[in-house]
Amino acid sequence: MRHPEWIKIKAAGTHQTRKVLRHHGVSTVCEEARCPNQGQCFTESVATFMILGDKCTRNCAFCSVESSTPLSLDPDEPQKVADAAKELGLKFVVITSVARDDLADGGSSQFARTILTVRNANKLIKIEVLTPDFKGNTEALKIVLDARPDVFNHNIETVPRLYPVVRPMADYLTSVNMLKTAKEISLDIRTKSGIMLGLGEEEQEVISVMQDLKEAGCDFLTIGQYLQPRRTNIPVVEYIRPEVFEEYRVKGLEIGFKAVASSPLTRSSMDAGEMFDKAELSGA
User: Fold this and answer.
1) Are 147 and 122 in contact (CB under 8 A)?
2) Could you read off the pLDDT of 176-218 as tens digits, one per residue?
3) Which of 265, 249, 248 has its CA nearest to residue 205?
4) What burial class does residue 164 get, using C-beta atoms within 10 Å of its C-beta: 0-12 exposed, 13-18 middle, 19+ buried?
5) Which residue ranges form the domains of the chain, and what is each CATH number?
6) Least C-beta-crowded within 10 Å: which of 147, 249, 269, 278?
7) Which residues, in sequence order, are bridge partners of residue 152?
């Protein structure tokens, strides 16, 4: 399916940001997941760091990150991320990862080390983590939260009915409960989640997910259009019009989210710092 006229993607091109990332040997979800906003973000010297290597132990139907046996953890990875963030002059850093079901703690210790190392390089920096579900392991979750990120993000991705197709190795309730538990453990940490549209979901299913997330204490919500990154990934069922995204944004605010970003090209990490800052300034 060709993209409709309201979806215009800026070419990634060659940017200084990419050179900095290559120099420090760090991976980004921007590149690995073929994010459509890569061109815009790299032009603005913004990137979402992807830790725990670039090989995922899961094989979600929507994701273009390579699924294969991961390599051993890189002990220097936290410092590499910190150095790259410092050279890029970032004031707000987003750290995500592949799923590492091969590790006893799901990679949570590496998350914690990266958070602490980045903050040690810049005491004033704000940090958002976007983690996998750690198979519902609360101890792994605590390890991440004890490192005190400013925002804890875990994407719900789609509606429960589509999980067997879209996220066959994940569980909807596990993801919802993870967000709920994160809020219970750390009341002062902002929690966040995101959902993709265009996979065959119905309107009421989307609203039900939004209500589940709000009941779990979620503060921030992102809603974006699923775009098929590779021919081997699940195809787009429908391109949702911009006005529908706006209706969901308004509905999310009515439900009680402190901030909602909703548009065809909205992605979980895009403008994450701006979302956080606006909530802070408004006292929400």
Assistant:
1) no
2) 999 999 999 999 999 999 999 999 999 999 999 999 999 999 9
3) 248
4) exposed
5) 16-282 (3.20.20.70)
6) 278
7) 129, 191
Summarize the confidence of residues 9-37 as an average pLDDT. Answer: 66
Q: Is the dihedral of CA 199, 106, 171, 147 positive or negative?
A: negative
- Residue 272's pLDDT is 85
In order of 17, 33, 156, the CA distances from 167 in angstroms are: 31, 15, 10
What six digits make up the tokens of 26? 């760090």
Specify the pLDDT at position 22. 78
Give CA–CA dist 27/254, Å, rounded.
Answer: 37
Q: Where are the beta strands (DSSP E) in 81-188?
A: 92-97, 126-130, 151-153
The three-point CA angle 101-134-79 to 5° equals 85
What 3-state class would DSSP assign to 79? Answer: helix
The pTM score is 0.92
Q: Which two tokens stand for residue 247?
A: 């209706």
Q: For residue 262, list its beta bridge partners.
A: 223
SS3 33: coil
Q: Report the C-alpha gap between 22 and 26 in whole angstroms.
A: 6
Q: How far apart are CA 17 and CA 173, in angstroms?
A: 37
At residue 149, the pLDDT reads 97
Q: Cα–Cα distance between 77 and 70 in angstroms, integer? A: 15
Q: What is the mean pLDDT of the chain?
A: 89
Say whether pLDDT at 42 is over 90: no
Distance CA 198, CA 277 (A): 29
Q: Over 90: is that where the pLDDT of 82 sits?
A: yes
Task: Determine how many CB atoms are found less than 10 A away from the CB of residue 5.
Answer: 6
CB 173 within 8 A of CB 192: no
